[in-house]
Amino acid sequence: MIGGIVMSKSNLEKQEAKLKALNQKIKDEKNKIEQNLGKQIIKSSNLDYANLSNDRIKLLAKQFSEFLKENPVDHQS
Questions:
Q1: Most exposed residue of 13, 24, 40, 72, measured as fewest CB within 10 angstroms of its CB?
Q2: Other CB atoms closer than 10 Å to residue 39's CB: what's the count?
Q3: What is the 3 state secondary structure string of the chain?
Q4: pLDDT > 70: percent of the chain
């Protein structure tokens, strides 16, 4: 029975490693999407990077969020 326990532990560790890798891949993909969205908003709005302080970014994000609340996006694209 000890061999079966060791084998199960090994399989569990492999699954855990796969899960961690998958979670990291999801996190990386989210970051890529966030960066791309930010770049597209900046580009489309002709914003100057020199004028984008943290406070300005937060204000713009809040304004954008309020706009989206009032003008829902079709998520089926």
A1: 72
A2: 10
A3: CHHHHHHHHHHHHHHHHHHHHHHHHHHHHHHHHHHHHHHHHHHHCCCCHHHCCHHHHHHHHHHHHHHHHHCCCCCCC
A4: 87
